[in-house]
Design goal:
Layout: E1 3-7, E2 10-13, E3 18-25, E4 34-39, E5 46-51, E6 58-60, E7 68-73, E8 78-83, E9 92-99, E10 111-114, E11 118-123
Parallel strand pairs: 2-11
Antiparallel strand pairs: 1-3, 3-8, 4-5, 4-9, 5-6, 7-8, 9-10, 9-11
């Protein structure tokens, strides 16, 4: 089985930065795309960013482009989300997920394994 554990969430002032980490256990981490999603209270889960198996291709949601950067370290079985210029509307529970293929994936249905999430709260 594959287990994903997010960390790095917390409370930050608007304009600040935060880096989320997702540690994976189990095999095949390096052969699959990884993604970050988020869900705010009363809202549906939405795509944030994805990275392919080798880390050479990325895609970000329009709402975070220029502010968030996804990266991965396959040797450490870890994917990161660097969040800069945070806004109050970024407040949500952030989830890490492993895709079903090696290329970049943006649909929630394209991810097989999910972490339990880490809370990010941005104050004004």
């Amino acid at each position: 089985q594959v287990q994903l554990v997010e960390s790095g969430g917390g409370l930050v002032q608007a304009g600040g930065s935060l880096r989320l980490s997702c540690a994976a256990s189990g095999r095949t981490f390096s052969s699959h795309a990884m993604g970050w999603f988020r869900q705010a209270p009363g809202k549906e889960r939405e795509f944030v960013a994805t990275i392919d198996w080798g880390g050479g291709s990325r895609d970000d949601a329009d709402s975070v482009q220029g502010r968030f950067t996804i990266s991965r370290d396959n040797a450490k079985s870890t994917v990161y989300l660097q969040m800069n210029s945070l806004k109050p509307e970024d407040t949500a529970v952030y989830y890490c997920a492993r895709g079903i293929a090696s290329g970049v994936l943006v649909a929630t249905t394209a991810y097989r394994y999910w972490g339990q999430g880490t809370q990010v709260t941005v104050s004004s």
